[in-house]
Amino acid sequence: AMLDPDSGLSLTIARIVQRLKGSSLHSQLERQARVSLRKPEIKLESLKEDLKDFLKTSGWEKKLQNAVYSELNVFPSPCHPAAPPEHMKEPLAYMRKAQGSWEKRILKSLNSMCTELSIPLAQKRPVNEQKELLNKWNEMGTDEPDLSLFRPVYAPKDFLEVLMNLRNPNYENGEQPSFRNHLGLIQVPLKVKDIPELKEDFSELGLNIGQMGIDDSAQVPPEFFENEHVRVGQKVLAEQDSAAAQQYVRQGCPTALRADLWALILNISNQPEDILYYEQLKSNVIQHDLLVDKLIYKDVKLTASNDDYYFVFEDYLYQVLLCFSRDTSVLEHFTYSSATPPKSYIQGKLGMEEYAVFYPPNGVIPFHGFSMYVAPLCFLYHEPSKLYQIFREMYVRFFFRLHSISSHPSGIVSLCLLFETLLQSHLPQLFYHLREIGAQPLRISFKWMVRAFSGYLATDQLLLLWDRILGYNSLEILAVLAAAVFAFRAVNLMEVTSLAAAEAVLADLSTLKVMPLLQIFLFATV
Amino acid sequence: RIMAGKVKWVTDIEKSVLINNFEKRGWIQVAESEDWNFYWMSVQTIRNVFSVETGYRLSDDQIVNHFPNHYELTRKDLMVKNIKRYRKELEKEGSPLAEKDENGKYIYLDFVPVTFMLPADYNLFVEEFRKNPSSTWIMKPCGKAQGKGIFLINKLSQIKKWSRDSKTSSFVTQSSKEAYVISLYINNPLLIGGKKFDLRLYVLVSTYRPLRCYMYKLGFCRFCTVKYTPSTSELDNMFVHLTNVAIQKHGDDYNHIHGGKWTVSNLRLYLESTRGKEVTNKLFDEIHWIIVQSLKAVAPVMNNDKHCFECYGYDIIIDDKLKPWLIEVNASPSLTSSTANDRILKYNLINDTLNIAVPNGEIPDCKWNKSPPKEVLGNYEVLYDEEMAQSDGPDRDLRSRSGQSTGVKGNRARDLGKPVLTTWK
């Protein structure tokens, strides 16, 4: 039975009201309303109307709008009222099953590392160690714990193997594989967009529309686009309108306005209670040692510490990620993620639900490269609690989709399929050639997409790309960019004869300019 | 002569970034005793070449990479002396550049931390020290490089032996080898990621009178591997305070992939994103300004020998108010590469330098006008061209410094190779 639009809308409203009730915004609104009662313009006869007007003029209505907008962005539209909660996580049963198996594998790997090394998953830190860590909080990078025995729980290529083996049991592909069928690594029939649809969705990236990343270059006089764009950006910030900001950043952010625009879109205001919350997480880190901490250290040391752009921020990465692991508010995102947080049991109480805890407390086990989600944000935010909140919000809105198995259009499976389909449809000769020489394109582009290109592009280009992720509230642009990169280097790729040679052609993306690549691929390719 | 048309080169600095550049131009290596056209010398050699005793005469087709008395700029004590003299001269002339604020500090020319020569100015130093007894000062030997012999002090007792009256003073005051400069230590440096850094910028001077200088666009930031802390207990930890790569390389955390270095464009991106575009533009304009002023300060005393050009390494520290400070100028910036990126940068630096100093890679004629076409600049951009500035009219006032050239467009035009900064007097 079709869900009629009215009941869909009232379901959404009910859900949003329920989520915002009891939030700090709610109590602030109540407080503001109460305080305003003393104002002369609030009259008893027209109390409701006067209050509404007051909240509007004082900017509080706008804050409420932004919060509602944020909820709409993050949560999917409700399914049928009769649908079970797992459908909000993932409607397709076979995907849920695959995600479940993957999670079991990860947990098994983590537990066996635990047993092998005889290290508990979590333990309280002795007092002298607590003191030491507190002193070293701002320079944990100088610590050199022995991490040689720890290995990342998994790397992107392990995850790709799992995705390659995904099959829909209800889909009988009886045809012989031919050049008409999908010849890529992903063999599940998800719906992905084609270029005409992408052109429509990403219409603001069109050739005749000004872009940061193209029209702000040295050769273009700023009067043509940049000055006006900056002016509009300042206006959007002055109005504090999330929806307007989201629309605005589709054309990219001026560098000086980006930090504030992203915070506005993500609805992060760094209130005192947010700072307090961060400090609370910090004290959790001081008091308890988690096994995942070692994984985080190892990851940072292997990736960000060696990166030309991000090595400077190594210490900030620990300060963010160690707190992140302990943040139980992150558990909320599992209602709309296909993933389920791993459960662990207090020693000796295996299987007893009263003694079950989520492990790590935020339910997210980091993998190799995870710290690269945080690193680019350090160029924008230098206050730890704000940096933390921005990252957390980016994770629960976007990044979680890059390492969980789901049918969501922004999920990694769809992105892989979108990439392969775009390449196969528009560069069939290249695709076929690469496949013939054993260099399936996805094998190369997968790691780019899983990391949202962090660590592969120059930072200024990466930030222009992430502008569009926020602007379109979608990760599909990652697949489009990956295809555009292949298109750009097609001539060289046609000449290679091995996977290694193809990797070499695509090893260095640091000189690429993303916006021209995207524009040409979407709007100027015949 | 068989290879009549090819440039004959000599060097006493065995670095691949140099030699590869000479060879790629098809130049021929010769010995010092032979007829050479181009000699990339160490600073010791230049001293000999131009010393009164040897009476070396360079011919018109010979070029060297140092000015004879470069030390007026590159010795820490002489640099400070020349800048102080320059300021006093401007003040005497009544120039608006020498304007002071209500505390007696130069508004536009206060870019070198308070510095004294030791032991010559010991008493003056003590007077200054006592005004701020909790301040930290940095002692640097005048004649050494790469961070050698540098130490920090925060108590007078630590430098007692430089006192002129000291009975324990064991050295001759005239000896330039044991002379030190003592400068107020910038203890509020701008920190990024909690780390201290300094800027290394390359500046090419082809002539001092008229002054023509170029700035290399690809400078870099050198980060300390250990967290910066102003605490007194860390004063002895050179890894925290000194950013010289030669010192950092021996710290535990030195990384051979990035070498603790950031490009200047990363710095700009970070500052624009976290502080805004106007203050960032202002910072970079101020950096250009202080470099040009330092060159103007020494220009009158420089032996503007037409056989010479020089590529300097400028060390600049930015404080947390985004004010740049000139720490020192190096005549022989290191050509050693600590990372792969470094090697590429230095190779390109030498390449672009040679393209400007030795036009078309052909046998030079030192009488040429030293005005290369803008196509050969490569990664250099014109920093200041006195000839062009003067032809723009003598009545440019000081306001143009903070007007046009600091506008949003200011940096853009520089990218186009236009000498935007020549509007300064």
Automatic annotation (TrEMBL), chain A:
It holds the Pfam family RabGAP-TBC. SUPFAM superfamilies: Ypt/Rab-GAP domain of gyp1p (SSF47923). Signal peptide: none annotated. Coiled coil: none annotated. InterPro entries: Rab-GAP-TBC_dom (IPR000195), Rab-GAP_TBC_sf (IPR035969), TBC1D19 (IPR042507). Residues 252-473 form the Rab-GAP TBC domain. PANTHER family: TBC1 DOMAIN FAMILY MEMBER 19. This is TBC19 protein. The gene is Tbc1d19.
TrEMBL record, chain B:
It catalyses: (L-glutamyl)(n)-gamma-L-glutamyl-L-glutamyl-[protein] + L-glutamate + ATP = (L-glutamyl)(n+1)-gamma-L-glutamyl-L-glutamyl-[protein] + ADP + phosphate + H(+). One of its GO terms (molecular function) is ATP binding. Keywords: ATP-binding, Cell projection, Cilium, Cytoplasm, Cytoskeleton, Ligase, Microtubule, Nucleotide-binding. It comes from the Eukaryota. One of its GO terms (cellular component) is ciliary basal body. Signal peptide: none annotated. GO terms for biological process: microtubule cytoskeleton organization. The keyword Zinc does not apply. Residues 389-425 are annotated as: Disordered. It is found in: Cytoplasm, Cytoskeleton, Cilium basal body. Part of the neuronal tubulin polyglutamylase complex which contains TPGS1, TPGS2, TTLL1, LRRC49 and NICN1. Interacts with PCM1, CSTPP1 and LRRC49. Belongs to the tubulin polyglutamylase family. This is Polyglutamylase complex subunit TTLL1. It comes from Heliornis fulica (sungrebe).
